[in-house]
Design goal:
binds flavin-adenine dinucleotide; 13 helices; single chain; alpha+beta; 358 residues; 3 domains; Alpha-Beta Plaits
Length: 358
């Protein structure tokens, strides 16, 4: 029998990077046994002389852009998988942190930081992989949070993307054995891809016990986003205290003023791969969290898996969260479903127009 040629790094570059579909998650970089891949400007580059070529192919098999959400959902949820626009979930809640230190710094209701703080406290995890900022204002930087103070430092949304999985390798090498990871839908998909991939480097993702996924319509390229704020609002990111959305982008400045920018002005700043993404609610996560669906100051929380249910119930037991069923608040699940449907419709149209794989 003739062996089917194995796809490898060259195919990854042609099918993903050259088509602007690379999310810069870092899955291929941390999986490469020859250290032949790197991220430059948020995109994967290949150093040919190190690459093992078609004797390997691990990078191709780890890439989340080369597998459908549905294939991964089927592995994760089996018969429970639904065709719903928001994926499978066993409970939907509107949630607020009970802790003033979290409420002061969180994006919406502080559900994410509250859940993680409790998991650290009870020893369910020994660290969390979260996204703070580094030297440049609002430029996201993934990091290992080992304490409540680390979590508070990284709370709040940054609307660009960072190579989250690179830190996962650091965490594995430093000996962390029980990790929670917070990420956007594309980042959570990357972890699920690695956990289920046939050619895997499983050691790196073995410590991940909980995936907390964020709702995400799209993320924005850092420099163009900074440039748009400067051009349209005469605001430098260094002067921004918080960014949020209420249909428009709301820019809260450190001097106490706030300013709005029409969402349509941001469309051209989205990463190209965001237009191919069909997942608004991080449907591959154990727990998904967003602002949409809940009143101002609360987070919408979807519990999807047994691990998610346990983490959530521990946070309630630990007194970290105040919760209500989402069905008891307005606007509720309808608006989440509507946005999820809209994101899918836009993505399918774009995928078909560009000839991208779906
Ligand atoms: C790029 C992006 C787009 C989003 N779009 C929407 C949307 O369209 N609709 C909606 O309802 N919600 C959206 N969200 C989610 C929302 O902004 C909040 O993150 C969510 O409601 C959780 O709020 P919280 O108060 O519980 O989180 P917090 O307790 O404040 O914790 C936030 C967590 O998110 C992590 N985080 C912050 N920025 C990033 C990032 N860039 N990448 C990965 N992790 C990050 C932090 O490390 C922290 O752990 C988006 C988030 C991001 C990052």
């Amino acid at each position: 029998m003739v062996r089917k040629p194995r796809k490898f790094s060259q195919d990854l570059i042609e099918e993903v990077v050259a088509k602007d579909l690379c999310t810069g998650c870092g899955a291929c970089v941390i999986s490469c046994p020859a250290n032949a891949l790197n991220l430059e400007g948020g995109k994967v580059v290949l150093t040919h002389e190190h690459c093992l070529g078609d004797r390997c192919g691990i990078c191709y098999e780890q890439c989340p852009q080369l597998v459908s959400d549905e294939a991964l959902m089927r592995i994760l949820f089996g018969d429970e998988m639904t065709r719903s626009d928001v994926g499978f979930y066993r409970g939907a809640y509107s949630v607020r942190s009970t802790s003033p230190d979290i409420s002061k710094v969180c994006q919406d209701g502080g559900a994410v930081t509250g859940i993680l703080a409790n998991l650290l406290e009870i020893g369910f995890i020994d660290a969390a992989i979260v996204t703070g900022t580094g030297d440049l204002p609002w430029l996201p930087e993934p990091r290992i949070a080992k304490s409540r103070a680390d979590l508070l430092n990284s709370a709040g949304s940054k609307y660009s993307l960072a190579p989250l999985l690179l830190v996962l390798k650091d965490a594995e090498e430093k000996g962390y054995r029980q990790l929670a990871v917070v990420g956007t839908p594309c980042q959570i998909k990357a972890i699920r891809r690695m956990q289920t991939s046939p050619l895997k480097n499983k050691k790196i993702v073995d410590p991940v016990k909980l995936c907390v996924g964020l709702f995400c319509l799209r993320a924005f390229e850092y420099q163009p986003f900074a440039g748009e704020l400067r051009k349209s609002l005469n605001i430098e990111l260094a002067d921004v205290d918080k960014l949020s959305f209420n249909g428009k982008l709301v820019v809260h400045c450190k001097d106490g003023s706030s300013h709005e920018l029409e969402a349509k002005r941001l469309r051209k700043l989205a990463y190209p791969h965001c237009w191919a993404c069909r997942d608004f609610t991080s449907s591959l996560a154990d727990i998904s969290v967003g602002g949409v669906g809940s009143p101002h100051g609360y987070s919408t929380v979807l519990i999807r898996t047994q691990a998610g249910a346990e983490a959530f119930s521990e946070a309630i037991k630990g007194g970290e969260l105040e919760t209500k069923p989402l069905s008891e608040v307005k606007p509720g699940m309808d608006v989440v479903e509507k946005l999820a449907r809209k994101k899918r419709t836009i993505a399918y149209a774009r995928i078909s127009r560009e000839g991208w794989r779906s």
